Amino acid sequence: MDHNPEDPLFLFLSHIAPHWANADDPIQVPQKYVDRFPHIVNEGRRKYAGAVAALDDSVGAVIAALKSKGMYENSIVVFSSDNGGAGLENTLGGLPVTHANNFPLRGAKTSQWEGGLRVTACIASPLLEKPKRVSNQLFHITDWFTTFLRLAGIGKPNEIDGYDIWDSISRDRPSPRTEILHQIDPVWKEYALRWNQYKLVIGSYTNASGYRIDQWYSEEDGFDPTFFDSTAKGAITCEDLETAQRIPCAYTEEPCLYDIHNDPCEYRNIAADKPDIVGLLMVKLNEYNRTALPSDRLPADPRAQASLTQGLCQPWSP
Q: I want to staple 111 with a disulfide (CB 3.0 to 4.6 A). Which of 213, 254, 297, 298 is the partner?
């Protein structure tokens, strides 16, 4: 509220509230938010909904502050997630559990399946030329940096990964992005690459007991169909999990290929039918891998503790 509205502003706000929890430290939510959702039977899901509601209220407070300072009319507000949710399936892997759900998509957080990668985003701004619509185009989180530079009147630096996607978002023009390198992990030998409608998957993260997050995980206590509108713009519709034709793939032994446009739930491995596409994506993946830096896990830095900044997680100087 102390910001001078005449000065440009870049504000980044990242909430930990719905992001992290596990069996030893379950998701924490003020009771007044939990009480908003008495119709949700499962306690974990009810608390998760409360955490998201608290997040929603805080975003509303930011919007209200921008409007009160007369800044909203010249602002662009982006609300986005960083990965798919972590549901109860992560308990078996000793991974974070927030009671989120990615159904009907395959996988969840920490996996290279669509349930771990595909997320929604919302853009609110009076500067949008074609507002109040849904875009199903291909974007990546690295595109925001390049786009923000353009909006701020700053040229794009050389050799940067992101694309300027403002014309796609504001004017509904085709996305300049046709490819996403999802993963190169030489430690776990896990690789994933998206090119146009096709996605190549090789390998998988696994814990010490051999557990992998590679299934289709339905909602705890069952899926309530009243919460899902398959006719909504942008809705993901897949064949019924129990009756769908599936073509399995031994992804730890050979490349798997999926047509994400026609099979967003990754039921059918079409590598045998599209060997030319597999070969093309392998060439692209090997080229990315050729320029990749060696993997390195740095030791923990005590100066990064949030307790040193009144609980605020923020960058620190090494």
A: 213
